[in-house]
Structure formats: C-alpha cells, structure tokens
Amino acid sequence: MTKIETLKKSIEGRRICIAVSGKSGCGNTTTSSLIARTLGLNLINYTFRSLAEERGVSLKEIMRQAAASDEVDRIVDRRQVELAQEGNCVLASRLAIWLTRASADLTVYLHAPDEVRVQRIHQREGGDINEILEFTRERDRQDHERYLKLYNIDNDSYDFADLILDAGSNNPNQLLDLVVDELLRRFGPGEESP
C-alpha cells in the first residue's frame, strides 16, 4: 500500500479539515487542489476572485470595494468558515490558517519570494511583469492593512502554522508529499506498507 493509500484509509470516516494559506502567487490554489483531489476531500477556495465572478466584476473592482467596505472581507471569510465547518475539506485562502486555527486538523502556510510569485501570476494572467509586481506589492499592502483592521491578524506572522513550506523551491507534488507525510504522522502509521 502506498503512503497516500495508507493515509486515505487512516482518515476515512474523519471530518478532516486542512487549511492552506499564502500570499498571491504562492500556489495556494494549485497545491490545495492537488491535496484535495489526491485525498478525496472537497476543495474550498472561496476568495475575492470567487466573489468577483459571482458579482460579474473584476478582481480589481472587488479589491476597490474591499478597501472601501469591511463587509466584502467579512462576506468572503464568513462563507469560507461555513464551508470548512462541514469538514472533509481543504480550505485554501489568504486567511484560512487564521480563520480555522482552532478547528483545522492541519494548518499549512506556503511562502515564496516575490520574484517567484510575480512570475507565476504573469504565467497565469499575462500582462506586463513590472505592472504585475507593482500590483502584487500593493495588493499585499492592502491585504495586510485590512486583516489588521478587521481581525487584528498580521498575515506576515504565520509561525504558528503546523507546516511552513517553501513553495518557491518545491513544486506542488513535492508540497503534497510534505503534507501527506505530516498527516501520516498525525493520523496514520507513518510508514508505507509493503
């Protein structure tokens, strides 16, 4: 039995919740999707982007609205927590590890250098690399200010996370492997069966 099969058997019947956070371009969605798909869990990735799509506006417009009104953040955050409470999920969002700190079975923070993040955003969305860098830095600044104001959360302080993973040096499959190893340590025998 592979370690993934062993883990799936170990968590079968549990209402497990894995929370994954990181700044834009760290691979939150890709890594969280891979974890969820591999382990047969639901992916919860309700973000500003999701709200923008629901409302038929751009991400920049939602960010503008969020800067003008705390209610935008509260809507997104409330929806994430509601969905995560159902369990059997991977919650992927900027604040996932903070919002589910007391209830998640595993909290994972992904970090990557700005240059890596900007390159990934550029590959995903296209555009001028310098504009993306400026936009990303401004988004980080706005996010930081909002989270402090709304919840007194410093999203640059994530040392409480169960796993802090380098998403700049590790690809999504390597990140998955590190998460599986930690989950096996917590819920399974910790070794592959022959």
TrEMBL record:
SUPFAM superfamilies: P-loop containing nucleoside triphosphate hydrolases. It is found in: Cytoplasm. It comes from the Bacteria. It holds the Pfam family Cytidylate_kin2. It catalyses: CMP + ATP = CDP + ADP; dCMP + ATP = dCDP + ADP. CDD domains: CMPK. Keywords: ATP-binding, Cytoplasm, Kinase, Nucleotide-binding, Transferase. ATP binds at G22, K23, S24, G25, C26, G27, N28, T29, T30. One of its GO terms (molecular function) is dCMP kinase activity. Its main location: cytoplasm. Its EC number is 2.7.4.25. One of its GO terms (biological process) is pyrimidine nucleotide metabolic process. One of its GO terms (cellular component) is cytoplasm. HAMAP family: Cytidyl_kinase_type2. Belongs to the cytidylate kinase family. Type 2 subfamily. This is Cytidylate kinase. It comes from Salinispira pacifica.
